[in-house]
Structures are given as structure tokens and as C-alpha cells.
Amino acid sequence: MEPFRIHILGCGSALPTLKHYATSQIVELREKLFMIDCGEGTQIQLRRSKIRFTKLGAIFISHLHGDHCFGLIGLISTFGLLGRTAALHVYAPKELEGMLHAQIELFCHGLEFEVVFHAVDTTRTAVVYEDRSLTVETIPLQHRIPRCGYLFREKPTLPHIRSDMIDFYRIPVSQINNIKSGADWTTDEGEFIPNVRLVSPPDRPRSYAYCSDTRYIPTLHRLVEGADCLYHEATYTHDLLSRARLYYHSTARQAATVARDAHVSKLLLGHYSARYDDEQTLLLEARSVFPPSFLSYEGAIFDV
After folding, report:
1. Is 277 an annotated catalytic residue?
2. Which residues are listed for Zn(2+) 1 binding in this entry (predicted)?
3. Is 68 annotated as a binding residue?
């Protein structure tokens, strides 16, 4: 099975601390790299993670609060210094476009690569990116300004051809893809071999849902139903529910409720308030509702 991993570069909230970097993640799927959010310090974290800058093809910005996008222009500038030539695609709320182009003109004049901006409608669910391996669709969320999450869905793959059948029936390499696509096989002696005997089922497509920043949405589970992995902000513990409501954030219990109702396989918590010296209180609260909950932290890598 091809790798499908989440690399946590930063999982803090708006107030900078010495413990956590601002929000940023890398989604790795079939040797492609995608970034979600780009807070301050992201490019430092990229170097620490030893992730290759050149393989990053697209950046998805959830909303225009600084802890989710202040690192973007610095990263673009660094790409220029590194001699990047491949286009960089940025998906973000439309309000960023003018400011981003102005920053590029001021700080990154003479880039040898194109920054392609894609305005995202944060109010509806829509596929905003697609290639041969996956689709990325928006998840409308509720915060103090327009914002959305992103759902990464792996596309179905072909069945696996059985190596023992290749050897036994002397199937040439030139016919392997045809058999994966559903073709039967006839041996040189005229024996008919149905496709079902030649292949094993394909790997089940996987999915990853990213939901931060947002207040608790009772219907959100419908949009992330059955995801293999869900990242949901858990800024506060539930004793600060009134504060969470005021600032349109969620508690760990609410994040776990979404995960439970969506029947996801795994919940990652993040976007921690700077008030917590030990996020174990958040984890314990989440696990009381949804046991397969985990704390994200800088440098962590989670398999989807």
C-alpha cells in the first residue's frame, strides 16, 4: 500500500509559545506533498522534518488568520532563493489574492516560478483539486471569518495481480495492466482463466479530513463520515465552553463527539490554547468520548 501520511509541522493556536509552532501540516500521498496552512515558522519546521521543498506542489489555506498564513510569503521567497521553477498552486479564500500578489511584487520580485492562485468558496462543499491519485474538497466550517476545512480522498486503485498466477500461467509483463483492468487470460494451451482467479482485491481508498478553526457544528459529522483520519481543533477543555463559543472554537469533548458521530477511525487533536502546559487534559477529555484520539505535536507523523 502506498504511503498516506500526515506530517505535523505546527499545532499551536494564535498566541506564539516556545512549545508549539503555528498551524501547518504536510499531507503525503503516493510521493506527492501538499501543505495545509502555513503559519510562522513553517519553513523552519520543513527543514527539521527533512521534507523536500521541491516536492511541494500545492498549499491549501483554511482562513486568513495570521497563525494559519503568515508564513506563506516567507516560504514563497525561500522557494525563489532555492531556484524553484515549477508552478506553486495556492488554494485560499479569495480575499488573500490581492494581498498575496502585492507581497510577491514587493518582496519576491523576479521569481522564476509562477504562483497560481485558486480562490476557494468557503461556503460550500466542492472539489477544488484533482489528479490521478486523489481529490481535495472543501468542508464549510464556522469561525469568526470565512473559512473551510479540506478533505483529501484517495482515488480507487486497480486490483493486485497475483504473482503466483503470473508465474504459473506464464503471463507476460505486457498483459499485466490489462488483467488489472479486468481482462481474463487464455493460456497457450487454450485454457481459459477468469480474471477473478488472477487478481486480489484493490486496497481500500483512504481519506483525511482537516477541520480547524471552527466552533462545534452538530452536523459536521455528515461531511466527514467514515474518514480514516480526522484532525479537529481542540483549543479548550470543556470547562471553558463559554470561551470556545465566544471565539468560535471547539473543546476536546466536542472534537471527539464529531469523530464519534462520523465513525472515523482516528482523531488527531490540535490548535491548543497557550494556557495549557500539558495537553494531556485535552486528550483525556477526548478519549472519554472517543478512545482512538491522539495528540498532534511538532514532528509527529501519522499514517492514514
Report:
1. no
2. 63, 65, 143, 213
3. yes
